[in-house]
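Protocol step 4 of 5: obtain the predicted structure for the target chain.
Materials: sequence only (see below). No template structures provided, no constraints applied. The aim of this step is simply to have a reference model before the mutagenesis design in step 5. Sequence pasted as it appears in the construct record:
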Amino acid sequence: MEKKFKMTSLEKKWVLYDVGNSAFTMLVATIFPIYFNHLAGTAGISDVDYLAYWGYAASVCTLIVAFLGPTLGAIADVKNYKKRIFTLFLGIGVAGCILLGFLSSWIWFLGVFVLTKVGYSASLVFYDAMLTDVTEEERMDTVSSNGFAWGYIGSCIPFIAGLAVVLGGESIGLNMQTSMVIAFLITAVWWLVSAVPLLKSYKQKYYIEEKPHMVKDSFMRLGHTFKEIYKQKHIFLFLVAFFFYIDGVYTVIDMATAYGEALGLETTGLLLALLLTQFVAFPSVLIMNRLAKKIKPTTVITICIAAYLLISLYAYGLDKQYEFWILAVAVGMFQGTVQALSRSYFAKIIPAEKSGEYFGLYDICGKGAAVVGTALVSVLSQVTGKMNIGVASLSVLFVIGLLVFRKAVKLNEMRETK
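Step 4 output (C-alpha coordinates):
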Protein backbone atom coordinates (compact mmCIF):
# COMPACT_ATOMS: atom_id res chain seq x y z
CA MET A 1 0.00 0.00 0.00
CA GLU A 2 1.27 3.47 -0.93
CA LYS A 3 2.36 5.48 2.10
CA LYS A 4 0.25 8.60 2.67
CA PHE A 5 2.10 11.75 1.71
CA LYS A 6 2.45 14.27 4.53
CA MET A 7 3.95 17.71 3.98
CA THR A 8 6.49 19.20 6.37
CA SER A 9 5.82 22.52 8.12
CA LEU A 10 8.12 24.39 5.70
CA GLU A 11 6.49 22.76 2.66
CA LYS A 12 3.07 23.86 3.95
CA LYS A 13 4.28 27.44 4.38
CA TRP A 14 5.68 27.41 0.85
CA VAL A 15 2.34 26.09 -0.46
CA LEU A 16 0.52 28.83 1.50
CA TYR A 17 2.16 31.52 -0.63
CA ASP A 18 0.60 29.88 -3.70
CA VAL A 19 -2.75 30.33 -1.94
CA GLY A 20 -2.00 34.03 -1.52
CA ASN A 21 -0.60 34.93 -4.92
CA SER A 22 -3.32 32.92 -6.69
CA ALA A 23 -5.85 35.40 -5.33
CA PHE A 24 -4.11 38.11 -7.35
CA THR A 25 -4.08 35.85 -10.43
CA MET A 26 -7.81 35.32 -10.02
CA LEU A 27 -8.38 39.06 -9.72
CA VAL A 28 -6.36 39.72 -12.90
CA ALA A 29 -8.30 37.07 -14.80
CA THR A 30 -11.73 38.33 -13.72
CA ILE A 31 -12.38 41.69 -12.04
CA PHE A 32 -9.36 43.58 -13.46
CA PRO A 33 -10.40 43.35 -17.14
CA ILE A 34 -14.03 44.11 -16.27
CA TYR A 35 -13.03 47.28 -14.44
CA PHE A 36 -10.62 48.22 -17.22
CA ASN A 37 -13.43 47.63 -19.73
CA HIS A 38 -15.58 50.03 -17.69
CA LEU A 39 -12.83 52.68 -17.66
CA ALA A 40 -12.03 52.18 -21.36
CA GLY A 41 -15.72 52.26 -22.33
CA THR A 42 -16.19 55.52 -20.45
CA ALA A 43 -13.26 56.93 -22.47
CA GLY A 44 -14.87 55.80 -25.76
CA ILE A 45 -12.46 52.94 -26.60
CA SER A 46 -13.90 50.15 -28.81
CA ASP A 47 -14.18 46.51 -27.66
CA VAL A 48 -11.52 45.28 -30.11
CA ASP A 49 -9.07 48.03 -29.06
CA TYR A 50 -9.85 47.36 -25.38
CA LEU A 51 -8.90 43.68 -25.79
CA ALA A 52 -5.76 44.65 -27.71
CA TYR A 53 -4.58 47.22 -25.14
CA TRP A 54 -5.10 44.70 -22.35
CA GLY A 55 -3.02 42.18 -24.30
CA TYR A 56 -0.26 44.69 -25.00
CA ALA A 57 -0.03 45.56 -21.30
CA ALA A 58 0.40 41.87 -20.44
CA SER A 59 3.15 41.62 -23.07
CA VAL A 60 5.00 44.62 -21.62
CA CYS A 61 4.96 42.90 -18.21
CA THR A 62 6.66 39.86 -19.71
CA LEU A 63 9.37 41.91 -21.40
CA ILE A 64 10.23 43.69 -18.13
CA VAL A 65 10.36 40.43 -16.16
CA ALA A 66 12.37 38.85 -18.99
CA PHE A 67 15.04 41.48 -18.36
CA LEU A 68 14.87 41.49 -14.56
CA GLY A 69 14.32 37.79 -13.85
CA PRO A 70 17.64 36.18 -14.86
CA THR A 71 19.70 39.17 -13.64
CA LEU A 72 18.15 39.30 -10.19
CA GLY A 73 17.95 35.50 -10.13
CA ALA A 74 21.73 35.35 -10.43
CA ILE A 75 22.07 37.77 -7.50
CA ALA A 76 19.46 35.80 -5.51
CA ASP A 77 21.64 32.67 -5.68
CA VAL A 78 24.13 34.47 -3.43
CA LYS A 79 23.77 33.50 0.25
CA ASN A 80 20.79 35.16 2.03
CA TYR A 81 19.67 37.21 -0.99
CA LYS A 82 16.82 35.10 -2.34
CA LYS A 83 14.39 36.04 0.45
CA ARG A 84 15.40 39.73 0.34
CA ILE A 85 14.63 40.14 -3.36
CA PHE A 86 11.47 38.05 -3.05
CA THR A 87 10.26 40.41 -0.29
CA LEU A 88 11.03 43.50 -2.39
CA PHE A 89 8.87 42.40 -5.31
CA LEU A 90 6.14 41.09 -3.02
CA GLY A 91 5.93 44.61 -1.56
CA ILE A 92 5.75 46.22 -5.02
CA GLY A 93 2.96 43.85 -6.06
CA VAL A 94 0.87 44.30 -2.91
CA ALA A 95 1.24 48.10 -2.90
CA GLY A 96 0.31 48.29 -6.59
CA CYS A 97 -2.74 46.09 -6.04
CA ILE A 98 -4.03 48.50 -3.39
CA LEU A 99 -3.34 51.59 -5.53
CA LEU A 100 -5.21 50.23 -8.56
CA GLY A 101 -8.57 50.50 -6.84
CA PHE A 102 -8.17 54.26 -6.48
CA LEU A 103 -7.52 54.96 -10.19
CA SER A 104 -10.22 56.23 -12.55
CA SER A 105 -8.12 56.90 -15.67
CA TRP A 106 -7.78 53.89 -18.01
CA ILE A 107 -4.21 54.81 -19.03
CA TRP A 108 -3.04 55.23 -15.42
CA PHE A 109 -4.80 52.00 -14.48
CA LEU A 110 -2.97 50.17 -17.28
CA GLY A 111 0.39 51.66 -16.25
CA VAL A 112 0.05 50.74 -12.57
CA PHE A 113 -1.27 47.32 -13.58
CA VAL A 114 1.99 46.70 -15.47
CA LEU A 115 4.03 47.67 -12.37
CA THR A 116 1.87 45.49 -10.10
CA LYS A 117 2.04 42.50 -12.44
CA VAL A 118 5.82 42.88 -12.65
CA GLY A 119 6.02 42.77 -8.83
CA TYR A 120 3.82 39.66 -8.76
CA SER A 121 5.69 37.90 -11.57
CA ALA A 122 9.16 38.73 -10.27
CA SER A 123 8.24 37.49 -6.78
CA LEU A 124 7.33 34.15 -8.36
CA VAL A 125 10.78 33.82 -9.95
CA PHE A 126 12.26 33.58 -6.45
CA TYR A 127 9.33 31.71 -4.94
CA ASP A 128 9.65 28.96 -7.59
CA ALA A 129 13.42 28.87 -7.01
CA MET A 130 12.75 28.25 -3.28
CA LEU A 131 11.30 24.84 -4.19
CA THR A 132 14.79 23.31 -4.22
CA ASP A 133 15.37 24.66 -0.69
CA VAL A 134 12.08 23.66 0.95
CA THR A 135 11.78 20.04 -0.22
CA GLU A 136 13.61 17.04 -1.70
CA GLU A 137 13.71 15.98 -5.35
CA GLU A 138 11.43 12.94 -4.92
CA ARG A 139 8.78 15.15 -3.22
CA MET A 140 8.85 18.04 -5.71
CA ASP A 141 6.01 16.87 -7.99
CA THR A 142 3.60 16.47 -5.08
CA VAL A 143 4.62 19.65 -3.24
CA SER A 144 4.42 21.72 -6.44
CA SER A 145 1.02 20.19 -7.29
CA ASN A 146 -0.29 20.93 -3.79
CA GLY A 147 0.80 24.54 -4.25
CA PHE A 148 -1.31 24.98 -7.35
CA ALA A 149 -4.21 22.89 -6.02
CA TRP A 150 -4.58 24.78 -2.74
CA GLY A 151 -3.86 28.00 -4.60
CA TYR A 152 -6.92 27.49 -6.76
CA ILE A 153 -9.29 26.69 -3.93
CA GLY A 154 -7.78 29.25 -1.54
CA SER A 155 -8.00 32.08 -4.06
CA CYS A 156 -11.77 31.63 -4.14
CA ILE A 157 -12.15 33.08 -0.62
CA PRO A 158 -10.94 36.64 -1.34
CA PHE A 159 -12.41 36.45 -4.84
CA ILE A 160 -15.91 35.64 -3.58
CA ALA A 161 -15.61 38.39 -0.96
CA GLY A 162 -14.46 40.89 -3.60
CA LEU A 163 -17.07 39.75 -6.09
CA ALA A 164 -19.83 40.20 -3.51
CA VAL A 165 -18.68 43.79 -2.99
CA VAL A 166 -18.44 44.52 -6.74
CA LEU A 167 -21.80 42.96 -7.68
CA GLY A 168 -23.69 43.96 -4.54
CA GLY A 169 -22.03 47.27 -3.77
CA GLU A 170 -24.67 49.36 -5.52
CA SER A 171 -27.44 47.92 -3.33
CA ILE A 172 -25.71 49.23 -0.19
CA GLY A 173 -24.80 52.61 -1.66
CA LEU A 174 -21.28 51.94 -2.94
CA ASN A 175 -20.25 53.27 -6.35
CA MET A 176 -18.09 51.27 -8.78
CA GLN A 177 -14.77 52.78 -7.68
CA THR A 178 -15.40 52.34 -3.94
CA SER A 179 -16.33 48.71 -4.57
CA MET A 180 -13.10 48.22 -6.53
CA VAL A 181 -11.01 49.80 -3.74
CA ILE A 182 -12.46 47.29 -1.25
CA ALA A 183 -12.10 44.30 -3.63
CA PHE A 184 -8.46 45.11 -4.44
CA LEU A 185 -7.66 45.74 -0.76
CA ILE A 186 -9.08 42.35 0.25
CA THR A 187 -6.87 40.63 -2.32
CA ALA A 188 -3.76 42.61 -1.35
CA VAL A 189 -4.14 41.82 2.37
CA TRP A 190 -4.79 38.12 1.65
CA TRP A 191 -1.69 38.01 -0.57
CA LEU A 192 0.56 39.69 2.01
CA VAL A 193 -0.65 37.69 5.02
CA SER A 194 -0.12 34.37 3.19
CA ALA A 195 3.55 35.26 2.63
CA VAL A 196 4.38 35.96 6.31
CA PRO A 197 4.84 32.31 7.50
CA LEU A 198 7.22 31.57 4.61
CA LEU A 199 9.20 34.76 5.20
CA LYS A 200 9.61 33.84 8.89
CA SER A 201 10.76 30.25 8.32
CA TYR A 202 12.55 30.11 4.96
CA LYS A 203 16.32 29.67 4.89
CA GLN A 204 18.37 29.44 1.70
CA LYS A 205 19.76 25.89 1.64
CA TYR A 206 21.62 26.03 -1.66
CA TYR A 207 23.64 29.13 -2.45
CA ILE A 208 26.84 30.70 -3.76
CA GLU A 209 29.09 32.56 -1.32
CA GLU A 210 29.10 36.35 -1.60
CA LYS A 211 32.12 37.89 -3.33
CA PRO A 212 33.43 41.50 -3.30
CA HIS A 213 32.00 42.40 -6.71
CA MET A 214 28.64 40.66 -6.31
CA VAL A 215 26.72 42.34 -9.17
CA LYS A 216 29.57 42.00 -11.66
CA ASP A 217 30.14 38.41 -10.58
CA SER A 218 26.41 37.65 -10.95
CA PHE A 219 26.41 38.94 -14.53
CA MET A 220 29.46 36.81 -15.31
CA ARG A 221 27.80 33.73 -13.81
CA LEU A 222 24.63 34.49 -15.77
CA GLY A 223 26.60 34.64 -19.02
CA HIS A 224 28.21 31.32 -18.14
CA THR A 225 24.79 29.84 -17.37
CA PHE A 226 23.45 30.87 -20.79
CA LYS A 227 26.33 28.98 -22.43
CA GLU A 228 25.83 26.06 -20.06
CA ILE A 229 22.13 25.76 -20.84
CA TYR A 230 22.73 25.83 -24.58
CA LYS A 231 25.15 22.91 -24.20
CA GLN A 232 22.67 21.00 -22.03
CA LYS A 233 20.18 20.36 -24.80
CA HIS A 234 17.63 18.63 -22.54
CA ILE A 235 17.30 21.86 -20.49
CA PHE A 236 17.54 24.22 -23.46
CA LEU A 237 14.84 22.43 -25.48
CA PHE A 238 12.59 22.16 -22.44
CA LEU A 239 12.77 25.94 -22.01
CA VAL A 240 11.98 26.46 -25.71
CA ALA A 241 9.01 24.10 -25.45
CA PHE A 242 7.86 25.67 -22.19
CA PHE A 243 8.08 29.13 -23.75
CA PHE A 244 5.55 28.16 -26.41
CA TYR A 245 3.05 25.99 -24.55
CA ILE A 246 2.97 27.99 -21.31
CA ASP A 247 2.59 31.23 -23.28
CA GLY A 248 -0.59 29.73 -24.67
CA VAL A 249 -1.75 28.61 -21.21
CA TYR A 250 -1.17 32.03 -19.63
CA THR A 251 -2.79 33.83 -22.54
CA VAL A 252 -5.95 31.81 -21.93
CA ILE A 253 -5.78 32.67 -18.21
CA ASP A 254 -5.03 36.37 -18.72
CA MET A 255 -7.49 37.05 -21.53
CA ALA A 256 -10.44 34.69 -20.91
CA THR A 257 -12.64 37.29 -19.20
CA ALA A 258 -11.53 40.04 -21.58
CA TYR A 259 -12.42 37.76 -24.51
CA GLY A 260 -15.85 36.95 -23.07
CA GLU A 261 -16.50 40.64 -22.36
CA ALA A 262 -15.49 41.60 -25.91
CA LEU A 263 -17.88 38.96 -27.29
CA GLY A 264 -20.66 40.61 -25.30
CA LEU A 265 -21.27 37.72 -22.92
CA GLU A 266 -22.99 38.47 -19.61
CA THR A 267 -20.49 39.63 -16.96
CA THR A 268 -21.85 37.77 -13.94
CA GLY A 269 -21.94 34.53 -15.93
CA LEU A 270 -18.31 34.99 -16.95
CA LEU A 271 -17.20 35.52 -13.36
CA LEU A 272 -19.12 32.51 -12.07
CA ALA A 273 -17.73 30.35 -14.88
CA LEU A 274 -14.17 31.31 -13.94
CA LEU A 275 -14.96 30.64 -10.27
CA LEU A 276 -16.04 27.17 -11.39
CA THR A 277 -12.61 26.81 -13.04
CA GLN A 278 -10.99 27.16 -9.60
CA PHE A 279 -13.19 24.49 -8.04
CA VAL A 280 -12.57 22.09 -10.94
CA ALA A 281 -8.82 22.78 -10.84
CA PHE A 282 -8.43 21.85 -7.15
CA PRO A 283 -9.25 18.12 -7.38
CA SER A 284 -7.94 17.89 -10.96
CA VAL A 285 -4.39 18.85 -9.95
CA LEU A 286 -4.36 16.32 -7.09
CA ILE A 287 -5.82 13.55 -9.27
CA MET A 288 -3.36 14.26 -12.08
CA ASN A 289 -0.49 14.22 -9.56
CA ARG A 290 -1.52 10.73 -8.49
CA LEU A 291 -1.64 9.75 -12.15
CA ALA A 292 1.88 11.16 -12.62
CA LYS A 293 3.13 8.74 -9.94
CA LYS A 294 1.76 5.78 -11.90
CA ILE A 295 2.87 6.98 -15.32
CA LYS A 296 5.65 9.46 -16.07
CA PRO A 297 5.06 13.12 -15.12
CA THR A 298 6.24 14.01 -18.62
CA THR A 299 3.41 11.92 -20.08
CA VAL A 300 0.87 13.84 -18.00
CA ILE A 301 2.40 17.15 -19.19
CA THR A 302 2.04 15.91 -22.78
CA ILE A 303 -1.65 15.11 -22.20
CA CYS A 304 -2.22 18.61 -20.79
CA ILE A 305 -0.56 20.37 -23.76
CA ALA A 306 -2.64 18.31 -26.20
CA ALA A 307 -5.79 19.19 -24.23
CA TYR A 308 -4.97 22.90 -24.46
CA LEU A 309 -4.52 22.55 -28.22
CA LEU A 310 -8.11 21.29 -28.43
CA ILE A 311 -9.30 24.05 -26.05
CA SER A 312 -7.83 26.79 -28.27
CA LEU A 313 -9.55 25.32 -31.34
CA TYR A 314 -12.83 25.05 -29.44
CA ALA A 315 -12.61 28.75 -28.51
CA TYR A 316 -12.73 29.71 -32.20
CA GLY A 317 -16.46 29.02 -32.44
CA LEU A 318 -17.35 30.25 -28.96
CA ASP A 319 -20.15 32.83 -28.92
CA LYS A 320 -22.62 31.62 -26.28
CA GLN A 321 -22.59 31.73 -22.49
CA TYR A 322 -22.91 27.97 -21.96
CA GLU A 323 -19.97 27.41 -24.34
CA PHE A 324 -17.86 29.65 -22.13
CA TRP A 325 -18.83 27.47 -19.14
CA ILE A 326 -17.64 24.37 -21.02
CA LEU A 327 -14.39 26.18 -21.77
CA ALA A 328 -14.00 27.09 -18.09
CA VAL A 329 -14.39 23.46 -16.99
CA ALA A 330 -11.91 22.22 -19.61
CA VAL A 331 -9.33 24.82 -18.58
CA GLY A 332 -9.77 23.90 -14.92
CA MET A 333 -9.05 20.24 -15.64
CA PHE A 334 -5.59 20.85 -17.09
CA GLN A 335 -4.41 24.35 -16.13
CA GLY A 336 -2.92 23.65 -12.69
CA THR A 337 -1.38 20.32 -13.63
CA VAL A 338 0.64 21.61 -16.58
CA GLN A 339 1.93 24.47 -14.40
CA ALA A 340 2.74 22.32 -11.35
CA LEU A 341 4.45 19.43 -13.13
CA SER A 342 6.39 21.75 -15.45
CA ARG A 343 7.73 23.62 -12.40
CA SER A 344 8.80 20.48 -10.54
CA TYR A 345 10.20 18.80 -13.68
CA PHE A 346 12.42 21.83 -14.31
CA ALA A 347 13.52 21.95 -10.65
CA LYS A 348 14.67 18.32 -10.96
CA ILE A 349 16.82 18.80 -14.08
CA ILE A 350 18.73 21.95 -12.99
CA PRO A 351 21.61 22.47 -10.51
CA ALA A 352 20.03 23.26 -7.10
CA GLU A 353 22.64 25.89 -6.18
CA LYS A 354 21.77 27.86 -9.34
CA SER A 355 18.00 27.67 -8.94
CA GLY A 356 17.62 31.48 -8.87
CA GLU A 357 19.39 31.92 -12.20
CA TYR A 358 17.63 29.01 -13.85
CA PHE A 359 14.18 29.95 -12.59
CA GLY A 360 14.84 33.50 -13.74
CA LEU A 361 15.13 32.08 -17.25
CA TYR A 362 12.20 29.72 -16.66
CA ASP A 363 9.93 32.57 -15.65
CA ILE A 364 10.80 34.58 -18.75
CA CYS A 365 8.85 31.89 -20.53
CA GLY A 366 5.87 31.87 -18.25
CA LYS A 367 4.84 33.71 -15.16
CA GLY A 368 5.49 37.25 -16.38
CA ALA A 369 2.47 36.92 -18.67
CA ALA A 370 2.34 35.65 -22.24
CA VAL A 371 4.23 37.92 -24.56
CA VAL A 372 3.84 35.92 -27.76
CA GLY A 373 0.32 34.70 -27.01
CA THR A 374 -1.17 38.03 -25.93
CA ALA A 375 0.56 39.91 -28.76
CA LEU A 376 -0.62 37.28 -31.27
CA VAL A 377 -4.23 37.52 -30.08
CA SER A 378 -4.12 41.32 -29.95
CA VAL A 379 -2.55 41.87 -33.39
CA LEU A 380 -4.69 39.30 -35.24
CA SER A 381 -7.85 40.58 -33.55
CA GLN A 382 -7.12 44.12 -34.72
CA VAL A 383 -5.90 43.18 -38.22
CA THR A 384 -8.79 40.82 -39.01
CA GLY A 385 -11.42 42.52 -36.85
CA LYS A 386 -12.33 39.04 -35.55
CA MET A 387 -11.40 38.10 -31.98
CA ASN A 388 -12.10 34.39 -32.61
CA ILE A 389 -9.24 34.18 -35.12
CA GLY A 390 -6.86 35.77 -32.63
CA VAL A 391 -7.75 33.26 -29.90
CA ALA A 392 -7.65 30.24 -32.26
CA SER A 393 -4.13 31.23 -33.34
CA LEU A 394 -2.92 30.03 -29.93
CA SER A 395 -3.15 26.47 -31.32
CA VAL A 396 0.12 27.12 -33.17
CA LEU A 397 1.90 27.72 -29.85
CA PHE A 398 0.64 24.42 -28.42
CA VAL A 399 1.66 22.42 -31.50
CA ILE A 400 5.22 23.81 -31.40
CA GLY A 401 5.42 23.39 -27.62
CA LEU A 402 4.25 19.77 -27.77
CA LEU A 403 6.72 18.71 -30.47
CA VAL A 404 9.74 20.39 -28.84
CA PHE A 405 8.78 19.12 -25.36
CA ARG A 406 8.76 15.51 -26.52
CA LYS A 407 12.22 16.00 -28.04
CA ALA A 408 13.50 17.50 -24.76
CA VAL A 409 12.11 14.58 -22.75
CA LYS A 410 13.75 12.08 -25.07
CA LEU A 411 17.14 13.79 -24.67
CA ASN A 412 16.80 13.84 -20.87
CA GLU A 413 15.90 10.15 -20.78
CA MET A 414 18.94 9.35 -22.93
CA ARG A 415 21.14 11.39 -20.57
CA GLU A 416 19.81 9.57 -17.47
CA THR A 417 20.43 6.12 -18.97
CA LYS A 418 24.11 6.84 -19.70
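Step 4 remarks: The CA atoms of residues 18 and 151 lie 5 Å apart. The chain has 17 helices and no strands.
Proceed to step 5.
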